[in-house]
Amino acid sequence: MRGMRGGGAAVSKSSLVGAILAPAILKAQAKEHIVKVNPYLSFNGTCEAAFKFYEQVFGGKIQVMMTFEGSPMADHAPANWRGKIMHARLDIGDQTLMGSDPPPDRYQPIKGITVSLSIDKPEDADRVFQALSEKGSVQMPIQKTFWALRFGMLTDQFGVPWMINCEASDQ
Question: Among residues 72, 91, 108, which one ends one of the domains?
């Protein structure tokens, strides 16, 4: 195919068409992601305290903190549980963390899952790890590893397992 001349460099017709279509192709590919993953955590009566704590640690904003009381679900919760959280939502940037206090007969401790946090700066990873591990238990202290500037594992005071990961930059 003959090159087209522009600015002293030869540009093929297919390159030019590709450059023109690239933004439209990228936009179409972005629409293919129809799912957003939001962890939904279950607590045994401590959801409100946990979400207020996470709001401080992560710098997010609680958007929803709804109790059983006054909702259509009030009659399905024990009387002493109606002040507990039926649904909570914490927005952290463009990420969302959700949770609730299911009625005691439906609560099960978290097993087989860990919430993984990817943090850009080592000092932020250290700060978040320290805050989450307060009154919790550390399975692996935060440290440099062969894949990360910082990595650590803990279970917080509310029984939620976390992994903190600050990967080494490719630069």
Answer: 108
Secondary structure letter of residue 3 according to DSSP: P
Q: What is the pLDDT of residues 118-164, one digit of tens each?
A: 999 999 999 999 999 999 999 999 999 999 999 999 999 999 999 99
Task: Tell me if 51 sits within 8 A of 39, measured CB to CB.
Answer: no
Residue 47's φ and ψ, nearest 5 degrees, are: -60, -45
The answer, as to whether pTM is greater than 0.90, is no
> In this structure, how many other beta carbons lie within 10 angstroms of the beta carbon of residue 20?
9
Domain count, the chain: 3
- The CA-CA-CA angle for residues 58, 61, 63, to 5°, reads 140
d(CA 130, CA 148): 17
Which residue in 121, 165, 159, 112 sits closest to 142, CA to CA? 165
100-111 confidence digits (pLDDT tens): 999 999 999 999
CB burial class (10 A; 0-12, 13-18, 19+) of residue 159? middle
Beta pairing partners, 10: 5
> Which one-letter DSSP state was computed for residue 81?
G
Last residue of a domain, one of 54, 85, 108: 108
> Which domain, by its residues, includes 124?
109-171
Mark whether 82 and 113 lie in a shared domain.
no
